[in-house]
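Worked Example 4.2. Consider the chain below.
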Amino acid sequence: MSQTYLEYEQEYNQSLSRVRSFLSSHARSLTTLKECDRLISVASRCASAMETIAGEENNTFQLQECRRRVEREVTPLMNEVQGALREKDGGGGMMDVEQRRNELFAGGSNSGGGYASPNLDGGETGDMMQSLIRDSDDLLSESRALCAESEEIGSGTLGTMGMQREQLTNASDYLRGARGTVDQARGLLQDMNRKALRNKRFLYCVIAVLILANLLVLIAVIKKHTK
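Applying the procedure from the previous section yields the following structure tokens:
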């Protein structure tokens, strides 16, 4: 596999999070619903890849978890989005924006061409304007959902950075403590070196005294024998 289980799981969670964000904001234009359908397909493929990896690793827990996720998360969202798409299609679908614009600005063709003021009190043009206003509201809702999602991602990033800063602070404290321990050990070694040097000097003095005593005894013995 080109990706690991955790990478597929992260992509799966991000896709479903965006779908829930779109649906909760009531931004259910045809474009938004198609995007939700695409994200659900991505999540479904990620779940299948996760299930394959879990099967290859003989991880029973992850395998069961993948199946539960598909049943509890992917399937309900898929049914909701498919139902909303059917409602859109059942209502005659959405008219292309360019077509609506042409129809609006072609309203004066019967009077010699050019733009004619639409009748907002009723009729097909009024319905068309109302539909355009609803689509604009849907786009605004979708933009608000994207802003909310961006804010949520930013908050998560700030939280992660805060945790990393705390970890760096703890590591700095550990390093400071280790440096203090090293300084203490260096002081102890210096004390031991000084004591060893004093002991060595004392031993040298004792050896010198013994040599001198031996020489004096030797001289005394020689003088005694010469007399």
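The helical segments are 5-24, 30-56, 60-90, 97-105, 123-226. Residues 1-93+129-152 form one domain. Compare this with Example 4.1 before moving on.
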